[in-house]
Amino acid sequence: xxxxxxxxxxxxxxxxxxxxxxxxxxxxxxxxxxxxxxxxxxxxxxxxxxxxxxxxxxxxxxxxxxxxxxxxxxxxxxxxxxxxxxxxxxxxxxxxxxxxxxxxxxxxxxxxxxxxxxxxxxxxxxxxxxxxxxxxxxxxxxxxxxxxxxxxxxxxxxxxxxxxxxxxxxxxxxxxxxxxxxxxxxxxxxxxxxxxxxxxxxxxxxxxxxxxxxxxxxxxxxxxxxxxxxxxxxxxxxxxxxxxxxxxxxxxxxxxxxxxxxxxxxxxxxxxxxxxxxxxxxxxxxxxxxxxxxxxxxxxxxxxxxxxxxxxxxxxxxxxxxxxxxxxxxxxxxxxxxxxxxxxxxxxxxxxxxxxxxxxxxxxxxxxxxxxxxxxxxxxx
Length: 381
What we know:
- By secondary structure, this protein is mostly helical.
- It has 2 domains: 25-250, no CATH class; 254-372, no CATH class.
- The chain has 14 helices and 4 strands.
- The protein has a two-stranded antiparallel ribbon with strand order 1-4.
- α3 runs antiparallel to α9 and α7 (165-195) crosses α9.
- The two termini are 18 Å apart.
- It is found in: Endoplasmic reticulum membrane.
- Its main location: endoplasmic reticulum.
- One of its GO terms (molecular function) is heme binding.
């Protein structure tokens, strides 16, 4: 079988129209550029300092969220069924989007969007002017922009440009460009901040700082340049990565699956109570994460059931043979991740939501082949 590099080439139809053919991670068709960006991103995302920073920021956000919800209960709560404490019904979908947006943005870019407090002010009529902040606008546009790439990749140009359809195409494109410029401005402002800081020890270990300082004298992480890429990343490269992180980090399905499986929810609560000793004022640390074994298993199971992407497409550079199949060059291939994750040959009861299959203490029938779990592309995404 030929090297992975020969399977890397991606279909560029539509990508060049979006200026995404040789930038970022998810849709980068330039192997050298992708390889460099991927190495930097992996090193940054896996940095202990970055993880500790992220855990601290997320913990702070949930402390703030608790205060916001307590205030909401105080203002709008009612006593139900002779309960001793007030309760209030909330639109959790709207809240969850903002929770994930707030946590993703602050741990990635140290950017506090305040979308939670803004939403609270709106539903409690504190924001009488109902003026949308630029961060809220970014969040709304981001959900629209995530459909843009798929639209341009799957629909031929002559159809995209037909009357009526081109109105929708332009609508998606304008929102994608808006979110990109938002990220670029964020990157430019942060680069100016970094240039004015002489001591790199004073730089916070957030992902944006790490990406901007990679391969520079202020490098927060160890230099990971390769022969083809020894230069720092440009504002455009960093900006596109930030947008990709934001877009992939806001939608999540953990709460949905946990909410539909009360036994799983109870086991999560039991583990949390065991680790934190029934305290309600606990603060989560980076070291605590390793103790939450079942929570990690739940995350893996959710990603198995609902992976980040359903398929991975490639464009074969040279002819090749896989098993008994002879595949000519210039053939477009696709890995069906959803099918792989639910294949009975690799998974016991594949349609069942069962986090226990990822626990080392489970019986041998529940162990799994790591090659059959491709949450983030198995190293070639």
